[in-house]
Amino acid sequence: MANVKSNHGKPVVVKGMDDPWNVWYSELHDGCCGLTLKIDRVLESDRSEFQRIEVLENRFFGKILALYGSLMVADNDHNAYNEMMAHVPLFCHPDPKQVLIIGGGDCGTLTEIMKHPEVEKCTMCELDQKVVETARRHFPHLTTGLDDSRARLVFEDGQEFIHSGNDKYDVIILDLSDPIGPATNLFQKPFHQAVFDRLNDSGILAAQAESPYFDQGAISAMYGNLRDIFPVAKLYTCFMPIYPSGYWAFMYCSKGPDPINDLDSARWERLKLKTRYYNIETHRAAFALPQFVKEILK
Ligand code: SPD
User: What pTM, to 2 d.p., does this model score?
Assistant: First the structure.
């Protein structure tokens, strides 16, 4: 039986294993190392207009969604990323009513945002409808937010959406795939400036910012751009085992609210949200950066 590997959309078939179901999936990082998983079942292997979409099953992680050969979410590894994307900006905003997600096709971030009763409307603008449909079929616990009457779904290019509309938001979340292919422009300064313009006065942006080990150039460039645009620009991190290096970065940017001084811990105590990673201590700790990460920001 073949041993199937993949590297950012380029599958490599390695022959010759005795076990009749000895199928392994490797996501290579920087072409020299990676994460390898034994695949118990391939539940979907499809292609949309934009990318390859796979749903794989591994004994430890459960079902895993991979796009263009890159692991996105797993049954047992999604909380840290989704909760830190959603709750960090929402608990720092004084009154988060209007929220916009660009990307976020697996709907995990949307589902976290819908836990906040203050939110009146959350619009999610995702390019690839097929990703949302796949997530609906395989990850019901991630997609419950879709059933909330406050959720609105738009299938459109995020850049066009941001540049074409006028509505303003309290919080904008860039829950993007990696800065390759269709998502590249969404990591650039003109897009970040347009996002700034779509935020209300106390508006907050949270954006996924790649791995502090493997993507230092990307983080440094993104931080530099955002610091030029926003009065407050900070990096925060979380532990995310299925992502390259298992350590992941986010940008927190705002027109005013500070991620530590304006954190509304009383609201967190009152709401008693059910989370697996986020709490007031992980929120604060996420902004304490190791020395090598501080160096990236110099
Ligand atoms: N290499 C994986 C990076 C994925 C970052 N975004 C994931 C989006 C999931 N909603």
Answer: 0.94
